[in-house]
## 1
Amino acid sequence: MEVIRSNFKDNLSKVCEAIEEADFLAIDGEFSGISDGPSVSALTNGFDTPEERYQKLKKHSMDFLLFQFGLCTFKYDHTEEKYIMKSFNFYIFPKPFNRSSPDVKFVCQSSSIDFLANQGFDFNKVFRNGIPYLNQEEERQLREQYDEKRSQANGAGSLSYISPNTTKCPVTIPEDQKKFIEKVVEQIEELLKNEENESLELEPCTGSVSEFKERYIVISKVDDEERKRREQQKQAKEQEELNDAVGFSRVVHAIANSGKLVIGHNMLLDVMHTIHQFYCPLPDNLVKLTLLCFNILNSYFVSRLLDTKLMASTQPFKEIINNTSLAELEKRLKEIPFSPPKVESAEGFPSYDTSSEQLHEAGYDAYITGLCFISMANFLGSFLSPPKNHVSARSKLIEPFFNKLFLMRVMDIPYLNLEGPDLQPKRDHVLHVTFPKEWKTSDLYQLFSAFGNIQVSWIDDTSAFVSLSQPEQVQIAVNTSRYAESYRIQTYAEYVEKKHEEKQAKRKCTEDSWKEMERKRLKTQCTPYVSQSRYYCVNSFTGTSTVGKRSMSPIQEETGSDDMEEGEDPEYNQTDSCAEPLPDSKKRAKKFKKIKKEQVPAGSFTSSSNEIFEVPETW
Amino acid sequence: MEVIRSNFKDNLSKVCEAIEEADFLAIDGEFSGISDGPSVSALTNGFDTPEERYQKLKKHSMDFLLFQFGLCTFKYDHTEEKYIMKSFNFYIFPKPFNRSSPDVKFVCQSSSIDFLANQGFDFNKVFRNGIPYLNQEEERQLREQYDEKRSQANGAGSLSYISPNTTKCPVTIPEDQKKFIEKVVEQIEELLKNEENESLELEPCTGSVSEFKERYIVISKVDDEERKRREQQKQAKEQEELNDAVGFSRVVHAIANSGKLVIGHNMLLDVMHTIHQFYCPLPDNLVKLTLLCFNILNSYFVSRLLDTKLMASTQPFKEIINNTSLAELEKRLKEIPFSPPKVESAEGFPSYDTSSEQLHEAGYDAYITGLCFISMANFLGSFLSPPKNHVSARSKLIEPFFNKLFLMRVMDIPYLNLEGPDLQPKRDHVLHVTFPKEWKTSDLYQLFSAFGNIQVSWIDDTSAFVSLSQPEQVQIAVNTSRYAESYRIQTYAEYVEKKHEEKQAKRKCTEDSWKEMERKRLKTQCTPYVSQSRYYCVNSFTGTSTVGKRSMSPIQEETGSDDMEEGEDPEYNQTDSCAEPLPDSKKRAKKFKKIKKEQVPAGSFTSSSNEIFEVPETW
């Protein structure tokens, strides 16, 4: 269902109802751009830490507009053994609400716009009929404006001659207008004296040249009761205006407050944009983001995010799924050993035809994402004894995937963890190299020609990470470079150490934030659901090979793009790395305790298995 | 005529022909926004100097996209005594040309987008079918890329195994692909040996999972002649690709190179955007802008810009034209004492109906601007003896209006002069006030309540210009504020002095630029046209009152908007000021000599009057 400004109000209750009744929700966003800064390859360095990636996206991607939001709700019908889905495709545009409302500026990236144009994206619909929105601060300010106006109208007195939001002040009446004003004063005095007349229409006072429609002031005499009635009418109207201005943000609030599982595909940018556009500016660092997410998502229940791209890249899927781009994933999941999910659109909702539909319409992408989730979740059920055909969104089987957002093009860190400190793989085969800005990749290949296959991850014009195939080679490379003049080589550990030193002051603040996080955690345990701390690390997966700490899988080469520019996907080879927290992060990790997991309500899940699937901390 | 990407190439010669044959051109641009920074009121302070205004627009307005460009060419038919016009409405979009071409990011301002959306602006046409463009530097780079590619293909040798623009390098062939590669080598050797076979189709080498259309390499044996023929073909194709990429910039070059009079309405932003988008980043200061304009516009002839908003705001028009917004101006100029111009659209070109057409379509706005110019120019002819009905674009009567761009909402400086130093009115009734950021306009009225009517021009949150009605009050105000703690008052002269001190270093550079300007001027005098220095300052206008140095006119309150946001037009009252260059600017002015004016070709103009109309330096 297409939702635009003109039909938003009529359909809002339908949207909220769909959210409330759903077993899970799938979302997707379309943006006016991806990266406003360095090239995508610099934006997504293969050795970014989650914190670094977050900082880059925050800095270079938040000025774009999320202008289409797809929401697809899925509700399982146990009798018919199928899902009933309702799909909504919202067009979003920050149409200024009034003169004093925020005049949002947003950036467009030509390549993204061109890409969407080629998909038939309807920009006219966005700009002419997009649903407005306010973030929380803007909503608060607008509410205050109304309150102030009301208190002024209720006779705050001395200031009430100033129209709100103008810089007008009392002026001396110009000579040529004195006669007009005097006449008005006379007329009003007449009205007050005369008991018969109830109202008075003043002459229009716009100049004769004007082409405006004639507007004039009507002065009415009213009693107290009538006055109150009119005031209440006005207040109701103002409340409606306020609701209209908050607009699409109400849908986002409904999603957050529902406590439902929210599915996305490669959803980090979607989550960041949603917070940034409809809640508040993104916090300084990942720890604070986590805090904020729990603030938003935990407001009523414990909410969870699940990224289907991460799920598809993880055991037991990664061995049987070659390409995790949304389009390819959807196709793959229709084939053996998976089964296409049974999903029907609800009555009155249009259905999508997956064989012909265009990707990159947010509503459709959300729908496909939901299908992928169902197929993968159900596949997990086949490992139970006895096997299950249907695995619900409340099943423990999928809990290991909660709140872990896929990290695009990071070689050895699979996800950004919203429930703990950054994963810190041991990068003992990685070098940090600085060199003159004239150097190209071929110069680096030249330099390291003695070491066999290497991988280059550009940081900027004059530096890059170079990963060697053997950690033992690292010290040799550093030693041989000792007297080099044009370039400098250091180990990854040395590089990190230096960066840490620079950020000493900053870290103090971060630790404090973790403490606050802990405090928050203790507080939220008082929700209606009984909580229990658990930690998924046992690797008792049956049917495929055991996943060890050192097991790796390459980042897939993709034909489609999941919100990053197409075709720029570098072809990473298998890398050798090992996830052991660095000394410093160990301390942080120690302080951190797992956020509680929601316990499954009795009866909805019968398996006795407890800790089955592991999401590893490295690829 | 609507010109989009798909019909641009077919119509380019038509566009160039129209420019070449025209007597004058009218242009207009539509942008994705106006001001990306402070509020419009801060962007257009009533006491901005031209330099300050330029800096503000440069800083806060250039990140927007000029995405519709209107061009209307007017050619006078002496036999029929009417103009023949050709109107073009170009949709512009920086569609990335290839992987390595610039990926332009531009800002959209919701209020501007919303305004255009309400006018029925077709965003889909812009984004799906806008004509691309390159600025001069980008064009140069692309040309270099092609040259490099060519020289590589011509056997530069050792590097030719590297595909251009990739970071690929020779790699060790993986074990599982060795067989495939060996087979290819064998096949090629076979082809070279065998005289019968002319070409060889290699097997596709994409993996089996791929959904790509099958692509494969064909190896052909060719002799030297065939090789050359193919190379020439390729070069011609590359040249065409290059032309396509330069795209709309070719139209702008044609306009600049034509040397024709270019008309615009409130055209400062149009001129700035045109330079910024299709030539090069805007220069640091106004002097350098002037230099650049003369560089661009003078490349073949002496070109001239004329701003109809400035013209309509100046004698002899300002007394009889109340509202200089484009829509109102067009209406006014149909009435006595003006006469509607006789203009017909050329064969094959659609005509506009001014009574029903939508404003803010760039092609239409350009057309209307041209109509306004013709009416006003012809009106000037009525003051000649004998009077003339038709005043051509080459007439001396309009020369006083050349290269002076209207300054929106500046109280006492009418225009930005592209032919000389900033106008510097004496602002001896103006105070500069700093105060706590909580202050509102009413606090300032309060503070100056003893001085009668004042005018407040906000600079930022904590400072404003306040103009008093009497210059004599200025010192009193400064004196009484001496011991104030929360605010500070200084005279305008003191304020300027302090700013000058801060910019001491910078100014040196500006003076050097003026010297270069002078050098340039001497050089351009070698053009085919005989030049003559003249200076319009005699005020011998007949028929209306004499315009003295102290005569003022209020800035009109407008119903329409000329590229600034609607309705925010402050209602300026008549101000009292006097244009006398400040001590410092006198020195600069001394150094500066008038840029030559093009002498009118013999026979095209018969009036004996020489210096009739003056464009004053202050309102």
## 2
Amino acid sequence: AAMAGCGWARAVRGLLLDVSGVLYDSGADGGVPIAGSVEAVRRIKASGLKLQLCTNETQATRESFVRKLRAMGFDVSVAEVTAPAPAACRLLRERGLRPHLLVHDDLVAEFAEVDRTNPNCVVLGDAAENFTYANLNEAFRLLIGMEKPVLISLGKGRYYKETDGLKLDVGAYMKALEYACDIQAEVVGKPAKTFFESALAELGVPPEQAIMIGDDIENDVGGAQQCGMRALQVRTGKYRPSDENHPKVKPDAYVNNLAEAVDIILQQL
Amino acid sequence: AAMAGCGWARAVRGLLLDVSGVLYDSGADGGVPIAGSVEAVRRIKASGLKLQLCTNETQATRESFVRKLRAMGFDVSVAEVTAPAPAACRLLRERGLRPHLLVHDDLVAEFAEVDRTNPNCVVLGDAAENFTYANLNEAFRLLIGMEKPVLISLGKGRYYKETDGLKLDVGAYMKALEYACDIQAEVVGKPAKTFFESALAELGVPPEQAIMIGDDIENDVGGAQQCGMRALQVRTGKYRPSDENHPKVKPDAYVNNLAEAVDIILQQL
């Protein structure tokens, strides 16, 4: 019933999955898997469908992120993760940009190959405890001192939920720097079209044969649809009933959780 | 030459002066007077013109702010200072609001008479070192938990200059909270029209007989003009040559500094 009229799912050859709020709920304790999700990932793989995780996670390298997911029981590898930091590294190389990083300590290793001397742009991630007054002033001074300030933001989320409460996400700090410098940041990560295109390239499937499954109505569902994909919203993670009245974005279907999505998709094949 | 064609200055009966960047340059050391400004304030008073300081300063009570200015040699009194915190206190009383304060430690005393139990709004000032990740998350959680979040911002400046460099101003943090909560802050302080009107009431002079002198093209010059005043921009403080090509705001004249402004105004009388 949730996906009645979803005959289009028969054409599917690959799935893009958001991670936080779909596979697990995050928190200071590392997080807990969402019921049925470990098994759902296993069933996707057994079915022969391709799978790629498409995340805006910027508090850890992909390696340590995958280590955490595997410890929870998810059968995933680093190659199956599309995340903003590697996408930012490609963009920096293509444009000869040398970043000043305002990111989480655990993300810095993703930029190991990048020249960071004499910075000519700022890369902003979810820096968490590194969002100090001094660090924000430093990033601001570098930007305002550039002839044409370049601010690259790893996502533009408003906030997220951890087990100990809501936290301001990178988007809030991006807006602070945008306003102070009177500039527009370039967003790498969902909902940027180029980011979904990278994820599809890594999945090896064209958009009309891929489905995005996420909990974020704008960044997951809206972004994927803009890219020509079908997109399902799960009723887990940051999902709120009011999402179902979103003024601009309408998912191709709602599902209670990842396990239900996989049930229905596999029935169509 | 700077004020050729400024015959209108003959009608002037009172001056509103911005403080930081006009009277002195601020800094961790307390700041230093701008050359000629101490004498310029003395000459304004000797001329019989009325004078009111119109500042967005929120890092100190008016009492300690005036103490600092007097120590630099400025002949000014507390009654001659219009500042955002007292204006915010009036607004809070009128609307029965109980604020959570995210402000500088030295400003808290301005809110001594205000009930702050069980907050139903957030008041944001230039909190400087109090702009920590934890304090910003706390203010955010209070706002997002309110049925109708009320954020009152003491100014909306982008940044300011201290002797050790540029600092993000309250407006940047206001934008972060606005974006995260999807709300609009209410601004108390320049460039709010009601704030200039309070300053004029305290000056005791109607807008057409008052001149605003400031270094901030938008908050000082633009705001005062919106209120029916003439406004001069000084080329001190945060002034940048690019201000002279501002797309929206054109001062009634440029002057090199306060001393020059006073020279020219007094010649017209």
